[in-house]
């Protein structure tokens, strides 16, 4: 009876080994699931970035407001007849 129990336990371990530690094991499935979740998070960020870029491109193609805003912010341009005022924060301004 003892040999039969030992044989059955050995057989059970031999059958369970590939399930837990083999090529297609549960550990590997858990690792792949974690990688999949990380990749989905990266993909969602890229989708959001692409949507923002698409909206910006559409705005630049269709309207002049976006072009004017970029010209003002990035190039420091002003319209004819406008007066540019720059307000400095007193806390950050240096005293001479």
Molecular structure report:
This protein has 96 residues and is mainly alpha-helical. The chain has a domain at 24-73. It is built from 3 helices and no strands. The protein is elongated, with a radius of gyration of 33 Å. This is Cell division protein FtsB. Residues 22-96 are periplasmic.
What low-confidence regions span 5 or more consecutive residues with pLDDT below 50?
Answer: none
Number of strands: 0
Percent strand equals under 5%
Give the radius of gyration.
33 Å
Termini, distance in Å?
99 Å
Q: Considering DSSP H and I runs of 4 or more, what fraction of the residues is helical?
A: over 70%
Largest sheet: none
Mean pLDDT: 85
Shape annotation: elongated
Which class do the helix and strand fractions yield?
mainly alpha
Note the total helix count: 3
Q: Which series of helices and strands comes N to C?
A: HHH
Blueprint (SSEs and pairs):
Elements: H1 2-21, H2 26-62, H3 65-75
Descriptors:
mainly alpha, single chain, elongated
Briefly, what is this?
With 96 residues, the protein is mainly α. It has helices at residues 2-21, 26-62, 65-75.
């Amino acid at each position: 009876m003892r040999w039969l129990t030992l044989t059955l336990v050995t057989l059970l371990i031999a059958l369970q080994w590939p399930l837990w530690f083999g090529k297609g094991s549960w550990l590997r499935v858990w690792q792949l699931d974690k990688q999949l979740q990380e990749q989905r998070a990266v993909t969602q960020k890229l989708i959001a970035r692409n949507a923002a870029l698409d909206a910006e491109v559409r705005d630049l193609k269709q309207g002049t407001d976006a072009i004017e805003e970029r010209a003002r912010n990035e190039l420091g341009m002003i319209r004819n007849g406008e007066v540019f005022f720059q307000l400095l924060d007193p806390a950050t301004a240096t005293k001479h």
